[in-house]
Amino acid sequence: MRRRTAGTRPAAVLALLATGAAVLGGGGPSGAAAATGAPQAVRSTGQEQAGQDQAESCDLTSTVPPSTVDGPAVKAIKAKDTLIIGVDQNSYRWGARNPNTGELEGFDIDLARTIGVAIMGNPTKVVLKPVSTAGRADALTGNQVDLIVRTMTISCANLKKVAFSRSYFNIKQRVLVPRSSTVKNLDEAISGKTVCAADGSVAKDVLNAKKTAKQLVLVTNQLDCLVRMQLGKVDATMTDDELAVGQAAQDQTVKVVDGFEQPETIGVAMRQNSTDLTARVNQVISDYYANKGWQKSFEQWVQPYLPENSKDPGLYWPAR
Questions:
Q1: Ramachandran category for residue 192: left, alpha or beta (phi over 0 → left; psi -120 to 50 → alpha)
Q2: CA distances from 94 to 42, 149, 181 (A)
Q3: Angle at the Cα of 315 (from 303 to 191), degrees rounded to 5?
Q4: Backbone angles phi, psi at 54, to 5 degrees
Q5: Residue (of 304, 283, 306, 318) closest to 71 by Cα position
Q6: Is beta strand 104-105 parallel, antiparallel or unpaired with respect to 95-97?
Q7: pTM reported for the whole predicted model
Q8: Are 82 and 145 in contact, with CB atoms under 8 Å apart?
Q9: 300: which strand partners?
């Protein structure tokens, strides 16, 4: 994908993206992924679960052993000759439309296609279907999709609704600042500063707990923070590191600083009665890491926009 500079993506465009403005349809392995419902807005991964998980306890590492055996769930998918995977289309570098080709691309898209081809054997039998953040679990329980590969946090609250694969990425809260800023780490970036975060996000909880920011500015969508930073109305933005990476890639006048808060993990979601499908996905994820596919995707989509002290892939691969 052609690398965009700050000059090619002005604040007005970012503001439009922040509202979840519709983009080109189609795409996916067969060029035919269909959008559903209203366009979705970019959000902070796991934000809807943070408050609940503080009061709950569950085994976030529990999943089924990897397997290549076709059980009832996998056989049912093969019988309908199509595997439908719910994905994002608005998170740059993770799941977004390439404006030049109309194709979906990003770190999560690479994984979704890898899983699809491994199970179906043919990319034309895999459909990538954009789903909204709020509609992820409903898309599974309503049989609209078979899997969700969309930066979905493995949390106690989510485990009540869906089953998860093994985790495939460690996420953390990061801070973005203007590239001209001289701050060197997260604490310097927020101490005594005006900091932006999404309302209801993990970032909001972290900033309220730290109590070092001069002012906390809350917005509906993460890209609204980027626009405010472009306009000089805030000094920094706190968000999940995968979204921070996407913002740094969209606008090269901002950067991610060193340091993080609130580690979490994300996984592939599926229906709770699809045990054999979970096992197959776990096998694919393990193979994907072993054959360097995970690292290659990480190096392409994520690593270039991380601060120098945070580029080690080992920080992001859950070693279990």
A1: left
A2: 11, 10, 26
A3: 85
A4: -65, -25
A5: 283
A6: antiparallel
A7: 0.76
A8: no
A9: none
Q: Which two tokens stand for residue 268?
A: 């592939």
More confident residue, 1 or 136: 136
**The two structure tokens encoding residue 94:** 């993770």
DSSP state of 200: T
Give the dihedral of Cα atoms 137, 209, 221, 214; nearest 10 deg: 180
- DSSP E strands in the chain: the ranges are 83-87, 90-91, 95-97, 104-105, 126-130, 147-153, 163-178, 194-198, 215-219, 236-240, 254-256, 261-270
- The amino acid sitting at 147 is L
Helix (H) or strand (E) holding 18: helix 11-18
d(CA 104, CA 288): 20
pLDDT digits (tens, 9 = 90+) for 111-135: 999 999 999 999 999 999 999 877 8
